[in-house]
């Protein structure tokens, strides 16, 4: 049976509003895309699509878990997470949920299960 294997690639870099407005990374991203496309081609992958979104770190309460360093949304500060844009649906396993426990920002996997945002709560 013939099948098609579709892979998703997620990556990120940290930047600032002034760098975004000044297009500081345009050339770097363009060069990265060219090299990435060539790498995919080398292994017979066909590049279908890619998309970049900028997420304001403070506004969306993004941070790193203080225990395991995973990227997370502090749901105690931002209970609604991201908007309903489908782009963000795929990020559930990339950007974990999390909250505050004993003064520390912890991801869903490091929070105790009794915490509202703990993994199995
Ligand atoms: Zn964690």
Radius of gyration: 18 Å
Average pLDDT number: 90
Beta strands, count: 4
Element string (H = helix, E = strand) = HHEEEE
Strand content: 5-15%
How many DSSP helices? 2
Largest beta sheet, briefly? 4 strands, mixed
Please give the oligomerization state of what you see.
single chain
Helix content: 10-25%
* Number of domain modules: 2
Cα distance, first to last residue? 41 Å
Biggest sheet: strands side by side, in what order?
Answer: 1-2-3-4
Task: Give the uncertain stretches in residue-range form.
Answer: none
Class by SSE composition: alpha+beta
Bound ligands, named by name, code or SMILES: zinc ion
Shape call: globular
Describe the structure.
18% of the residues lie in helices and 14% in strands. It has 121 residues and is an alpha+beta fold. A hairpin with a 2-residue loop joins strand 3 (96-101) and strand 4. It starts with 16 loop residues before the first helix and ends in a 14-residue tail after the last strand. Zinc ion binds next to strand 4. Residues 65, 67-68, 70, 106-107, 109-110 line the site of zinc ion.
Which descriptors apply to this entry?
121 residues, 2 domains, four-stranded mixed beta sheet, 2 helices, binds zinc ion
Task: Show the helix and strand layout.
Elements: H1 17-21, H2 26-42, E1 62-64, E2 71-74, E3 96-101, E4 104-107
Parallel strand pairs: 2-3
Antiparallel strand pairs: 1-2, 3-4
Bound molecules: zinc ion (ZN).
